[in-house]
Amino acid sequence: MNENILEQNKEIARRFFDECWNQGKVERLDQYIAKDCRYHDPAFPSLKSGINDLESHIAMCRKAFPDLRFSMDDMIAERDEVVVHWTANGIHQGQFLGVPATRRIASVSGTSIYRIKNQKIAEQFADLEPANATRTTGRRHGSQDASNSPLGSSISARGAICGDAFRAPFSSCSHPHWQSAP
After folding, report:
1. What is the residue-wise DSSP string for 86-141?
2. N or C: which end of the chain has fewer CB within 10 A?
3. What does the pLDDT look like over 89-110, one tens digit per residue?
């Protein structure tokens, strides 16, 4: 495939993450997402095809984590697909999957595969890394307590900060990716 097309496809994925997820500009979804885009995400299996459910999903996540930021740790384009390994971080400031705000810093990493057709994302496959889904620093936002600092937690190779303090509130949640890891 033409190298320019591969770079264009990567730019579509980059701008989707930056504008729609990081900046919360869901009104721009139609610039990056096909009207009949299909979603395959075991963490959120109820996402329906199209832009409306994705808009609601992003809004829900950003309401719970208003400072939500995705970093793209790696990006590969081949044929009509773009693969992105990402890490998302944010402070849990609102209800999420039935769990009230904890004001703790959350971090999760995952991989998304985007199939691009006619310069829009026509299909998305996403998978969270379950071992990292509930990892946080265990430090409340604004806390200066050194015993709860990120330096007191172990740091994985992907940069997710691993602490157990945030896991307990999610252990009773019925969502499979937000239950306590064994």
Report:
1. EEEEEE--S-BTTBPP--EEEEEEEEEEEEEETTEEEEEEEEE-GGGTTEEEEEET
2. C
3. 999 999 998 899 999 999 999 9
